[in-house]
Amino acid sequence: MSAGSADYADRFWTSADGLRLHACDYAAASGPAALPVICIHGLTRNARDFDALAPWLAARGRRVLAIDVRGRGLSQWDPAANYVPAAYAQDVERFMAGLGIARAVFVGTSMGGLITMEVAASSPHLIAAAIVNDVGPVLAEAGIRRITGYAGLTPHMSAWTDAADYLRRQNVQALPHYEPEDWARMARRMFRERDGHILPDYDPAISRPLGEGSGALPADPWQRWEALARDRPVLLLRGSLSDLLEGDVADKMVAGRAGVLLRLVNGVGHAPMLDEADALAAIEDFLRKAD
């Protein structure tokens, strides 16, 4: 299959509780060996969220594995609705073990950043360095309200233009620079056609733990952040218009930590798509020093 300008291979593995899970495996361009990259998407997204970043990283000599978290994309839906960070982290750990990957650079957008923190707490040896995209131990109420307002909904669209317009209404404040063709591409990433309908490409039950108060942050979120930030280089990206990661929280996350960098992605909100010039420049500089 293909995404962006690079080909990828489909990888499947089985979770500890028997789900068939999927990831996109982008081969590294030839050159000096570098650590692979594990990309983990946000709550209602999937591996296709990285269809610009992954080829860009692969062209720079890194194998990239973009994961469909359980319940999204080509990964199986969970009948038990066990959609919580601890289960997601165990899935990632099992995936890496199956491929014989001992250490990697993690890229986590929103929920993917929380999963990265969870992996750092349970299996810190797996994470050589991390890029955390617009999320932290404290989530702003405005962002939570916005996300819970649409997460788990299953609007039925009859045309791809309807899906693009639906996403524009949800995200125009975060991505004010997007043109109609950008919303159309986002729709193709986030929706899938089933039985003549165009639907969000996730299990509606992913939102259930949010309503039960167990799906956003662990009981000790600052300890999770400390587990990630303590012994490895970390790049924290924050959209300058973010309604989920407030500036004072981001400042606290990096304060007193020499190995943790904060970089703004100007002109976007939650969450940067990681194809912005600011984001790519920060990522390239960070990865140059991460191995």
Describe how the helices and strands are arranged.
Elements: E1 2-3, E2 6-7, E3 9-14, E4 20-26, E5 37-40, H1 53-58, E6 64-68, H2 85-99, E7 104-109, H3 111-122, E8 127-133, H4 141-148, H5 160-171, H6 180-190, E9 191-194, E10 197-200, H7 208-211, H8 221-229, E11 234-239, H9 247-254, E12 260-265, H10 277-290
Parallel strand pairs: 5-6, 5-7, 7-8, 8-11, 11-12
Antiparallel strand pairs: 1-2, 3-4, 4-6, 9-10
Helix pairs in contact: 2-3, 3-8, 5-6
Key phrases:
291 residues; alpha/beta; Rossmann fold; eight-stranded mixed beta sheet; two-stranded antiparallel sheet; 10 helices; 12 strands; globular; disordered N terminus
Structure description:
With 291 residues, the protein is an alpha/beta fold. It folds into 2 domains: 2-148 and 207-290, Rossmann fold (3-Layer(aba) Sandwich); 153-201, no CATH class. It is built from 10 helices and 12 strands. It has an 8-stranded mixed beta sheet, with helices on both faces. A two-stranded antiparallel sheet has the order 1-2. Helix 2 (85-99) crosses helix 3, helix 3 (111-122) crosses helix 8 (221-229) and helix 5 (160-171) crosses helix 6 (180-190). The model is unreliable at 1-5 (pLDDT under 50).
